[in-house]
């Protein structure tokens, strides 16, 4: 345990409790005047009266801080300022350095977590919204798995519903071989749009499509075979995108809408038995509490349409019930764009009212904003069609390759290709994950591939530079060197940043705000840069040299681990 904030909290909490008579959160935070400070004495006055400086003094008297702090001061109206002892920092760093997991233990209470993400629609191009979902969802999976949770990926593929009538008819029109060809080269949009055009223009095609939906839903074997072919080809294409992206999603993670078909009827029955269903204009609806329209009128979630069909909401109700009852998940995450916030909120509320979703289980919408082009509008190609994801990613890699070739012409071709991929894909992912996910962001190759600022290449380069220190010095990272000695302010600042990793990870595991992890890594790389400017490493001698090598090694490992949790690779040279 090397989480400084938590360590200080545990030392101060009993002292506060003794003084206040009740538990008190010491409210530890980083300080400009010392390393950390606690402001809790000020708020306590309202509860127990007296003078906050006296309260602070009584707390400090009782708190066991000698082995951790070099200086404990009461300042201003009653702040407790805490300056850590250099040898305590050294001891903690040694603990972290000796640990594969850099001091972050697996969680004590592991949970089963479902992560609903990526979820493109079959026989349609993935759009940038699906890219965001894939990038964020994958980071969620990596982080929570690493924390020790049982994580179940659920790629909620859009593979069912009325469009498949027209898609199967179009497939029959052009022939299976031609369809397979179009889909396998990833021309999903052309295929979809051709079907759509016919549907809009040709009444007999429309009629055929409607009959085909009925056949599909009634389980007609010939129709199912053609439908399956569409699904298989689409899945192959999506898997190629995941592969290029280095996402952990595989063929076994597809669990699309069609899987819930035979559960829809029973969802309706169960909701009806619970008295939650009401007729509204011929449709069967739930009116979940808390959702009202402009006039305060309750809003319906349509479970069964007036024509007897089931829609998106019915499938999501079956899905949440399945995840709770069959998968026994207690944390259900939905990595879906913000426009679906109300839909998901209504599904969650319905699940609560049905008694399916009850503590400790909870559902969370991990919402995100849009990806914009330089014109500030949703990113599209010049022709106005949505951007093809493979092209977008390939472009990032080829630009990275040009940059790497210029920066480091000595790299052999294979290494350069691998580095370009790590940098190009890393840049795309990092640009996404380093912005507060509820905000929109502008997709800008120049900025995301810049070696300056809060970007993947900057962090990757910082780590590669550390690798080169070890290469140049011909030294191995000192893994059992004991506690490093810290003398320079830049060393202390770096140490404090390194020791903040555990607490940061605990926080991000809860709020899944990956921009905080990004900000942390950026802060770490910056602290390292200042340290490296002021403190010679290879030219230093003896204990100082070893200590600085320990700091270098820990920085490199923390960057690698942190980037890895974001799904970003760390090349050893760039
Ligand atoms: N396929 C949907 C879309 O493209 C996203 C599905 C999200 N997940 C869910 N359980 N509704 O918008």
From TrEMBL:
<dbReference type="InterPro" id="IPR005148">
    <property type="entry name" value="Arg-tRNA-synth_N"/>
</dbReference>
<dbReference type="InterPro" id="IPR014729">
    <property type="entry name" value="Rossmann-like_a/b/a_fold"/>
</dbReference>
<feature type="domain" description="Arginyl tRNA synthetase N-terminal">
    <location>
        <begin position="2"/>
        <end position="84"/>
    </location>
</feature>
<feature type="domain" description="DALR anticodon binding">
    <location>
        <begin position="459"/>
        <end position="574"/>
    </location>
</feature>
<dbReference type="GO" id="GO:0005524">
    <property type="term" value="F:ATP binding"/>
</dbReference>
<dbReference type="GO" id="GO:0004814">
    <property type="term" value="F:arginine-tRNA ligase activity"/>
</dbReference>
<keyword id="KW-0030">Aminoacyl-tRNA synthetase</keyword>
<comment type="subunit">
    <text>Monomer.</text>
</comment>
<dbReference type="InterPro" id="IPR035684">
    <property type="entry name" value="ArgRS_core"/>
</dbReference>
<dbReference type="Pfam" id="PF03485">
    <property type="entry name" value="Arg_tRNA_synt_N"/>
</dbReference>
<dbReference type="InterPro" id="IPR001278">
    <property type="entry name" value="Arg-tRNA-ligase"/>
</dbReference>
<dbReference type="InterPro" id="IPR036695">
    <property type="entry name" value="Arg-tRNA-synth_N_sf"/>
</dbReference>
<dbReference type="InterPro" id="IPR009080">
    <property type="entry name" value="tRNAsynth_Ia_anticodon-bd"/>
</dbReference>
<dbReference type="GO" id="GO:0005737">
    <property type="term" value="C:cytoplasm"/>
</dbReference>
<keyword id="KW-0436">Ligase</keyword>
<keyword id="KW-0648">Protein biosynthesis</keyword>
<keyword id="KW-0547">Nucleotide-binding</keyword>
<dbReference type="GO" id="GO:0006420">
    <property type="term" value="P:arginyl-tRNA aminoacylation"/>
</dbReference>
<keyword id="KW-0963">Cytoplasm</keyword>
<keyword id="KW-0067">ATP-binding</keyword>
<comment type="similarity">
    <text>Belongs to the class-I aminoacyl-tRNA synthetase family.</text>
</comment>
<dbReference type="Pfam" id="PF05746">
    <property type="entry name" value="DALR_1"/>
</dbReference>
<protein>
    <recommendedName>
        <fullName>Arginine--tRNA ligase</fullName>
        <ecNumber>6.1.1.19</ecNumber>
    </recommendedName>
</protein>
<dbReference type="InterPro" id="IPR001412">
    <property type="entry name" value="aa-tRNA-synth_I_CS"/>
</dbReference>
<dbReference type="Pfam" id="PF00750">
    <property type="entry name" value="tRNA-synt_1d"/>
</dbReference>
<dbReference type="InterPro" id="IPR008909">
    <property type="entry name" value="DALR_anticod-bd"/>
</dbReference>
